[in-house]
TrEMBL record:
Name used for this protein in its record: SusD-like starch-binding protein associating with outer membrane
Cellular location(s): Cell outer membrane
Organism the protein comes from: Hoylesella shahii DSM 15611 = JCM 12083
Family: Belongs to the SusD family.
Main location class: membrane
SusD-like N-terminal domain: residues covered: 23-230
Keyword line: Cell outer membrane, Membrane, Signal
Ranges where the RagB/SusD domain occurs: 347-464
GO CC entries: cell outer membrane
PROSITE patterns linked to this entry: PROKAR_LIPOPROTEIN
Superkingdom of the organism of origin: Bacteria
InterPro entries on file: SusD-like_N, SusD_RagB_dom, TPR-like_helical_dom_sf
Pfam families in the record: SusD-like_3, SusD_RagB
Classification via Gene3D superfamilies: 1.25.40.390
C-alpha cells in the first residue's frame, strides 16, 4: 500500500492520554501496515473498537442517587466518589480538574481515527473479495456514525431543527490525518447529516446477515442506528419506518421472568442473565468502556425505583438491596451483566412504540410495550390506553425503565424531552444539607470540551458555556 498508517501494534487503538501533542491527544505508536482484508477486519475486532460512549454522564440525571456517605457497600457516596463525578452530580460549572482526563472524548476520537483508516483504505487491500471489503468498510462507517452520535449528544445541545444549523457540535474528522490544527466545530446539523450519510452508505455495503457474531455489523445494525438517530432528530415517521424494518427480522425478546438470582451473596455472576454476546436481543454489540457499565458504582434514585412494579424482574435481578449478604438502606445498581450499548431489539420496540404514539397507531404502540413487559414482569397484566397523550407518557416511562443506566441514554432523553414543555424535567439531587438543581435546558446538560483540546485550538474552537 502506498500510504503507511502508524497504528498500535494491536492493530486498533491509536491513542495515549499523556504527552499531549495534537488537538485530540492522539499519539500513534508502534507500527503495523494493514495490507489484507483480514488485517482490516482485525482492526475492527479489537476490544477497544468494540466499546462505545461513556457512562459518567449518568451522574447528571434523575436516575442517579448518591448518599452523603455509603455504608456496607463498595458503591461510593459523595464522601468517597471520584472528584469529577461529584462535580457532575452536584452540577458544578467545572467538571474535570487538573490531571483528570476526559476519556469519553479521547477514546471516541481514537476509534474514529481507526475507522477512518478502514473507510479510506480497505478497498485497496491486496486480498479478499469486494464483498468482504465492502462489509468491512460498511462496519467502519457504522462505528464512526455511532461514535459521532454519542459525541454530538454529549458535547452539544440536543438537535433542534430550528437552531441546529447554528448550534456548535463537535469537530468532524473524516480522514486519517491526526496532525490537523485550528479545528472548528461542525454544526449540530452538520454532524447529524454526516451520521445519516455514513449510515445510508453503510447499509448498501453491509450483508443482510452476519456470519460471525453481533460484534460485527449487518444491514440491520445500520438501520437500527438510523432509527435511533432519526428519533433524536424528531423525525418520527422515518424513525418508525426504520425501526419497523429491523423488528420485522429481529423480534425475539429475552424472557427475564425465566432468570433468577443464583448467587445472592455475590456480584459478578449474581444472576444467570446472559451477557450481550449470548443474548438473542443483540443486533449489534458494543460494550461500555468498563464492560459492566456503572454496576456497583451508583444507587438508583427513589424516583426510578418507584417506577417498577414489585413483580418486575428488572428490579429484582439488577437492583439488589443486599451487598454480599449485608442488608442495605438503599438498593444499588448491580446487574454485572455485559450489557449492549449499541443496537438491540428492546430499543427498536421502544422507538417504534414512541413513534406510533406520536404520529401513528396508538394501539400498536401499546401492543409493542405490553409485549416487552410480558418478558420483563411476572404475570404481567396488559395495560389498556387509547388516548395518544396517555400512551406516549406510558411509552416514555417504559423507555426509562428498560434503558436505565444503558450508557447515558437517560441524559440524551432528558435533553430531547426538555425541548417539549409537556415533558420538561427539573433534576434534583438531594444531600443531607443541600439540594442541587438542574433546570430544563440548563447549559450544564452539555459537557465541556476538554481543556487540552481547547489549548490546541484556542483560536478556532469555542468552549461550551456552562
Amino acid at each position: 500500500m502506498k500510504t503507511t498508517y502508524h497504528i498500535l501494534a494491536t492493530l486498533a487503538l491509536a491513542t495515549t492520554l499523556s504527552a499531549c501533542d495534537s488537538y485530540l491527544d492522539i499519539k500513534p505508536k508502534g507500527e503495523r501496515i494493514p495490507e489484507t482484508a483480514s488485517d482490516y477486519r482485525s482492526m475492527l475486532s479489537h476490544s477497544n473498537i468494540q466499546k462505545i460512549g461513556e457512562t459518567y454522564p449518568v451522574y447528571l440525571t434523575d436516575d442517579c442517587y448518591l448518599p452523603d456517605s455509603a455504608v456496607n457497600t463498595a458503591t461510593p457516596g459523595l464522601n468517597t466518589i471520584t472528584p469529577y463525578l461529584k462535580r457532575l452530580y452536584t452540577f458544578d460549572k467545572e467538571v474535570f480538574g487538573d490531571g483528570e482526563d476526559d476519556t469519553f472524548w479521547f477514546s471516541a476520537y481514537s476509534r474514529i481515527f481507526t475507522n477512518n483508516v478502514v473507510v479510506r483504505e480497505v478497498m485497496k487491500a491486496t486480498e479478499g473479495t469486494n464483498e468482504e471489503k465492502n462489509a468491512i468498510r460498511g462496519e467502519a462507517l457504522v462505528n464512526r456514525a455511532l461514535d459521532y452520535l454519542y459525541l454530538v449528544n454529549g458535547y452539544a445541545k440536543h438537535y433542534n431543527e430550528a437552531t441546529a444549523d447554528n448550534d456548535p457540535g463537535v469537530p468532524l474528522l473524516l480522514d486519517a490525518d491526526i496532525s490537523q490544527t485550528n479545528l472548528t466545530r461542525a454544526s449540530v446539523k452538520g454532524v447529524y447529516q454526516q451520521i445519516l450519510a455514513d449510515l445510508n452508505e453503510a447499509e448498501k455495503a453491509l450483508p443482510a446477515e452476519i456470519s460471525t457474531n453481533a460484534f460485527h455489523a449487518s444491514k440491520d445494525a445500520a438501520r437500527g442506528l438510523l432509527a435511533r438517530t432519526l428519533l433524536y432528530m424528531g423525525n418520527y415517521a422515518d424513525a418508525l419506518k426504520a425501526a419497523n424494518e429491523v423488528i420485522a427480522r429481529h423480534d425475539t425478546l429475552l424472557n427475564l421472568t425465566q432468570y433468577a438470582v443464583v448467587k445472592p451473596n455475590g456480584m459478578i455472576g449474581r444472576t444467570n442473565v446472559p451477557d450481550a454476546d449470548a443474548n438473542p436481543e443483540s443486533i449489534f454489540i458494543k460494550y461500555a468502556p468498563y464492560i459492566f457499565g456503572v454496576s456497583s458504582k451508583v444507587f438508583p434514585s427513589d424516583t426510578l425505583l418507584n417506577m417498577y412494579p414489585g413483580n418486575d424482574m428488572r428490579m429484582a435481578l439488577f437492583m439488589p438491596d443486599k451487598y454480599r449478604g449485608t442488608q442495605l438502606t438503599h438498593a444499588i445498581w448491580a446487574p454485572f451483566v455485559r450489557a449492549n450499548t449499541a443496537i438491540s431489539t428492546p430499543e427498536m420496540f421502544l422507538i417504534a412504540a414512541e413513534c406510533e404514539a406520536r404520529v401513528g397507531n396508538a394501539q400498536r404502540a401499546m401492543a409493542l410495550i405490553n409485549k416487552l413487559r410480558d418478558h420483563r414482569i411476572h404475570t404481567n397484566t396488559h395495560v389498556v390506553l387509547t388516548d395518544k397523550d396517555s400512551v406516549l407518557n406510558f411509552v416514555l416511562a417504559e423507555r426509562r425503565r428498560e434503558l436505565a443506566f444503558n450508557g447515558f441514554t437517560r441524559l440524551i432523553d432528558l435533553k430531547r424531552l426538555n425541548l417539549d414543555p409537556r415533558f420538561a424535567t427539573t433534576v434534583k439531587h438531594v444531600g443531607a444539607n443541600e439540594t442541587w438543581v438542574l433546570m430544563p435546558n440548563d447549559p450544564k446538560y452539555v459537557l465541556p470540551i476538554p481543556q487540552k483540546v481547547m489549548r490546541f485550538n484556542a483560536n478556532s474552537m469555542t468552549q461550551n458555556e456552562r
